[in-house]
Design goal:
By secondary structure, this protein is α/β, with parallel strands linked by helices. The protein has eleven helices and 15 strands. The mean pLDDT is 95.
Length: 344
C-alpha cells in the first residue's frame, strides 16, 4: 500500500496533486472540509476528464463522516434524526459515554463533534475500514490540517485500511477545526514536529518536499510571508506580483470599485458591498489574480512594530491564507480606510 501525507505550502498545487493521481481504473474517494475546496476539486476533476467519472466520489467531510462512516453501520441502532452542529449544552453533562444522550441532544440529532467518537465507542471502526476496502482503492483527504478533535483520531484509524492513503495539507493553513470536544487533541496544532510524528506513528510516509514551492505567489509575496509572518515559503518565480502598500482614501475607494480585485477582511466581509471574502474562508479559492488584504487595527499595529508573527496563531494562519491567494499583486490596506464603505 502507498500511504503518505504531503505537507505543502500555499499555491504549490495541493488540489492538483490529488487530481493528477486520478485515473479511470481505480476507485477513488476524495474528502475535503470546506465547500470552496469541494467546488474547486470538482471543477478540476471535470477539467481533467470532461465529466465527473463514476469511479471518483467527492465528499465534504461531514457527508463522509455521517453518510459513509456512521449511518450504514449505526444509523438503525441509534435512530438519530440528523446532525446538530452546535456543541453539546449543559444538559449533556449528566450523561456518560455509554448513554445516547452523550452523543445526541433534543430531537435526537447527533452532536457533530462527537460522531467520530460515537463510531469508536460503538466498536464500528473496523467496520468502517472494511467498507473503505470494499468500495475504494484510494482514499484522498484534502486540507488534512483542518481535521481535529475526535475526527483526527478517526482519520488515523482509517489509515489502517488496506488501501492507498493520500493526505495533503498545509500545517500553517490550519484556520478551522472539523470539531472540538473538551481536551481532545487541543494541542494538536501547537507543534509541527509533534504533528508530523502522529502520522509517522500511524504508518504513513511524511513528505515535506514534493509540494514545497508555491507556483501561485511571486517571490515578493513569499518574502513578505516568510519575513513578516515567520512562515517559510518559496516561490517558483512564475509570478511577478508585488506587495503594494495602500495608504490613502482615494486608493481604497479605487480598489473597492474594482471587481477584479477581491477584498479580504478578517470578518464580516458582507458588510462592505464589494467583491469580498473573509481571510480564513478564502482558503481553497484559487482563481484570484490581484488581492487586497484589509489589515484590521490589531494587525496594522502589529505590522508597524514588526510583530505580525506574534499575533495569535489562528490569526496569523488566516492572514497567511489571505495573502497567499494572490497570483498577481498583493495590496495591503488599513481597515480604517474602509469604514466609509461599511454598512451599519
Amino acid at each position: 500500500m502507498d500511504k503518505r501525507v504531503v505537507f505543502a505550502v500555499a499555491g504549490s498545487g495541493k488540489t492538483t496533486s490529488i487530481v493528477e493521481r486520478l485515473d479511470l481504473a481505480q476507485r477513488f474517494l476524495i474528502v475535503t472540509f470546506t465547500h470552496a475546496n469541494h467546488d474547486n476539486l470538482r471543477a478540476k476533476i471535470i477539467g481533467k476528464f470532461g465529466w465527473l467519472p463514476d469511479n471518483v466520489v467527492l465528499m465534504t467531510y461531514f457527508s463522509f463522516l455521517y453518510g459513509f462512516c456512521y449511518r450504514p453501520i449505526l444509523g438503525m441502532r441509534m435512530g438519530d434524526r440528523g446532525i446538530d452542529y452546535r456543541p453539546p449544552g449543559e444538559e449533556a453533562r449528566r450523561f456518560r459515554i455509554r448513554d445516547d444522550g452523550y452523543f445526541m441532544g433534543v430531537g435526537r440529532r447527533l452532536y457533530s463533534n462527537r460522531i467520530a467518537r460515537l463510531v469508536e465507542a460503538k466498536g464500528a471502526l473496523a467496520d468502517v475500514n472494511r467498507r473503505l476496502e470494499k468500495y475504494y482503492n484510494v482514499l484522498c483527504v484534502d486540507e488534512v490540517q483542518d481535521i481535529a478533535g475526535h475526527d483526527f483520531n478517526l482519520l488515523l484509524s482509517l489509515c489502517g485500511a488496506t488501501i492507498d492513503i493520500y493526505l495533503v495539507g498545509d500545517f500553517h493553513q490550519h484556520t478551522f477545526d472539523t470539531s472540538r470536544d473538551g481536551a481532545v487533541n487541543t494541542s494538536l496544532h501547537e507543534d509541527y514536529e509533534a504533528y508530523k510524528k502522529r502520522f509517522t506513528k500511524a504508518g504513513l510516509l511524511v513528505d515535506t518536499q514534493s509540494l514545497a514551492v508555491s507556483r501561485r505567489c511571486s517571490p515578493d509575496i513569499c518574502d513578505f510571508i516568510t519575513r513578516d509572518l515567520n512562515i517559510a515559503i518559496k516561490s517558483s518565480e512564475e509570478s511577478t506580483g508585488k506587495v503594494v502598500e495602500i495608504g490613502t482614501q482615494a486608493e481604497v475607494d479605487g480598489l473597492v470599485a474594482r471587481d477584479d480585485v477581491v477584498k479580504l477582511f478578517v470578518k464580516e466581509h458582507y458588510r462592505y458591498g464589494c467583491h469580498s471574502q473573509n481571510w480564513g474562508a478564502s482558503k481553497g479559492e484559487d482563481s484570484h489574480m490581484d488581492v487586497c488584504v484589509v489589515l484590521h487595527d490589531a494587525a496594522g499595529k502589529a505590522r508597524v512594530g514588526g510583530g505580525l508573527a506574534g499575533m495569535p496563531a489562528q490569526t496569523v494562519n488566516k492572514l497567511y491564507v489571505a495573502c497567499s491567494r494572490a497570483r498577481g499583486n498583493l495590496y495591503l490596506a488599513p481597515a480604517k480606510l474602509f469604514k466609509k464603505h461599511k454598512a451599519a
